[in-house]
Amino acid sequence: MRMFTPYALLAALSMPAVGMAQQPAISPQLDNQRIDQQTPEDNTLRQTQRREAGFRGTESATEQPGAQSEANQELTNYLAAKLYLANQCQIELAEMAANQAKSQDVKNLANDIKQSHQQANQKLVSAMPQLKQVKDLSGNDSDHATRDDAATSQNADTAERNARTPRDRVASNLRDNRVANSNRVAPALSSDTQAPVDGAAQKLLNIERRAIENNHKLTKQMFSDKQGEKFDMCYVGAVIGSHNWMHSELSAIQDVDAPQFMQIVDEADNKVQQHLGTAKQLAKKMQDQQSNEGSTSDSRDSTDSRDSTDSFRN
């Protein structure tokens, strides 16, 4: 059996330490060079990751205050964009009700809802200019109608232009170009305006948009075959359901460090509760009218039946 001398054991035990000592140390200068070599894309990616972490609530309390501020702003922008879309839905339904409702009370309610939610969106955009990038609800019938009308008008203009002389066509084209330039509207997505949300918040907002659009289409389909009093009752019922939900969501928005936004939320919630109360009163009024009409009809049928019986007996 081979024996190790104390010197051999000491040399063997000291080998890992020597190996570790031989590993090259990273100098502060090299570390600074690596930081300097980081690209703007790397910095943007890290900022996005910090915002997403803060939005999910997974950011450590030891993170810098700037990252927490960005996460709070991201949350505020998301909630504001969500409220903006919900207001648009109420505005479109109110416009339809104002045109198709039979009862003047229902028309008045629709006009009040339209005005209140328009004012709320104006305040949101004024407080948060980034919301200008939030597009309107897609698939609106008014948009399709506008495009169809434009196509019909274009076809008529084309036929008219073909009947003109070349000189007349040149003059007409110049005039149309001047009108088009004067009526041009700025694009919804501006390259020099920062998006309201990104990352995980943007994905959530896209889901919210699709949900609102789906509900909006289903509601409009429900109204499509309703007229007169049936339309009035259907719209008032939709107002009660949607405003109940909006009140629940608005009253749940708390712990958001954005005083101006919270003031808009409080004002919107007050208006929503007012509309909800008016809609409930109208629903009860229409139910009472239907009950009275039903009682009157039953009484009239009963009287006619007795008259017929007496006539038969005589």
Automatic annotation (TrEMBL):
Region (Disordered): 28-71, 136-175, 275-314
Highest taxon in the source lineage: Bacteria
Regions of compositional bias (Polar residues) in chain numbering: 28-47, 59-71
Record keyword Transmembrane helix present: no
Record key words, sorted: Signal
Record Pfam families: DUF4142
Keyword Transmembrane set for record: no
Signal sequence bounds: 1-21
InterPro entries named in the record: DUF4142 (IPR025419)
PANTHER family in the cross-refs: BLR2558 PROTEIN
Name of this chain's protein: DUF4142 domain-containing protein
The organism of origin for this protein: Aeoliella straminimaris
